[in-house]
Design brief:
The chain has about 140 residues and is mainly alpha-helical. It has a domain at about 45-135. It is about 70% helix and about 0% strand. The protein contains six helices and no strands. The longest helix has about 35 residues, at about 30-65.
Amino acid sequence: MSTTVDYETDLHAWTKAQADALRRRAGNEIDYENIAEELEDLGSSHQSEIESRLENLLLHLLKWKYQPSMQSGSWLSSIIEARSRIVRVKERNPSLKRYPGDCLADIYPTAKARAIAETGLVAGDIPDACPWRIEDVLDDDFLP
């Protein structure tokens, strides 16, 4: 069985075959290059999840702050969920503990643009840089 063909045609079957080969220590059956790529992608996916959750969290915090008359349980629920998911990713991946703070400044402009698009607020009404520290953003008791 050619692992390259399986990798290209059926990723699920390829992962099962590779896991089996690794457990059996069958070095001649292991697709080292593709395994390395998949492991790197797996690590990157955790960073991407934090970025996505942080962007949604910032979006809802901005809407909460700059549209107080529209505050809703749905927004609050989104804030709670995003914080919870970020915490879970960090707990499962301790090396990413500081990552939300590291990417906050990069994520904020997109969250701001989304907030403007969703609310009709004027860009000048919302700060260009994130007005909150990452500790506040992730704090369960913080609402602006």
